[in-house]
UniProtKB/TrEMBL annotation:
This is Putative Excinuclease ABC, C subunit domain protein. The lineage of its organism: Bacteria, Pseudomonadati, Thermodesulfobacteriota, Desulfovibrionia, Desulfovibrionales. It comes from Megalodesulfovibrio gigas (strain ATCC 19364 / DSM 1382 / NCIMB 9332 / VKM B-1759).
Length: 302
């Protein structure tokens, strides 16, 4: 079991969405979270002269569900971030970690950069703007232990400032295919709209469906997923039992992992359903899915 902890957040300009300075009791580090627009002000702070590691966060396009990250380190992080402010367009906000004393040197932050890149790649919850991944730098046994401790503090702080890209996804609920269909009337199936390319690549090819919003009250009820293929097919064509549901991205969306290869069914056409009926996920029962002849057979409650 992880130990409970407290962090302190100081807001120097009184704006909770502006610059925030984060520290913890008995920690030698200091974090600075800031929106890109505030960089000229942050640049003047004395911490920018220190050796540190930083993470820049943003989205490359409106359709992106996963954030893009750039992870770096420098002796004097201010000069390096000046360069990124001028040359890197994607990032909207950043977080910098430095030592509150003189504890971090160039070897330490190089190791932190290496470890954060490795952790981000393992979690697979972001796109990395970094080019080549660095090799693990050599540290003495004692230095590595201390730096690993600093990394652990960073990884505890990041989710609290809205960045979960370094967390290995965990199943939200222990979902799975039931031994038999649930009682009639209990919604246990989510129907997702899918365009042809995504449906064939992800749903059929990879056995996953991601970037889906799921109502909180449905998370522990979903046992099946059905795929509605948009125009020109305009019909539900496959279903599969659900193995698990994991967080996906930073905006409250989820990834559904199929328990087995999707099963084709007699297509359930859009028919006389009202316009826009399948612009977002819909819920139904597995029994109804098996009996339906058209989409409107699935859209009612009970």
């Amino acid at each position: 079991m992880t130990a409970p902890f407290t962090i302190r957040i100081f807001v120097p300009d009184g704006d909770p969405e502006g610059v925030r300075i984060i520290d913890r009791m008995n920690w030698t580090g200091l974090g600075l979270v800031f929106p890109r627009a505030k960089w000229p002000d942050v640049r003047q702070r004395p911490e920018m002269q220190r050796t540190g590691v930083y993470i820049l966060v943003g989205y490359r396009g409106e359709e992106d569900d996963l954030p893009t990250l750039y992870i770096g380190q420098a002796d004097g992080v201010g000069n390096r971030l000046d360069s990124h402010a001028a040359k890197k367009e994607f990032w909207d906000w950043g977080i910098i970690f430095v030592s509150s004393s003189t504890g971090l040197n160039r070897a330490h932050v190089t190791w932190l950069e290496y470890a954060l890149l490795r952790q981000a790649a393992a979690a697979n919850r972001c796109h990395l703007d970094n080019g080549n991944a660095p090799q693990e730098p050599a540290l003495s046994e004692a230095e590595k232990a201390d730096t690993q401790g600093f990394l652990a503090e960073i990884l505890q702080i990041l989710p609290l400032v809205g960045l979960r890209a370094f967390e290995i996804p965990k199943a939200v609920v222990p979902t799975g295919a039931p031994a038999q269909p649930l009682k009639r009337g209990e919604q246990d199936t989510v129907i997702v709209p899918a365009q042809k390319d995504g449906f064939e690549k992800a749903f059929l090819g990879e056995g996953v469906w991601h970037a889906i919003r799921i109502s909180g009250g449905m998370l522990d009820k979903i046992k099946y997923i059905a795929g509605y293929q948009t125009h020109p097919i305009s019909a539900i064509t496959h279903y599969a039992p659900v193995a698990r549901i994991e967080p996906y991205g930073e905006s409250g969306k989820y990834k559904i992992i199929l328990a087995e290869k999707a099963t084709p069914i007699t297509p359930i056409p859009y028919g006389d359903a009202p316009p826009g009926a399948m612009q977002s996920p819909r819920y139904t029962t597995f029994a109804r899915l098996l009996e339906a002849r058209k989409l409107t057979d699935l859209l009612g409650k009970g």
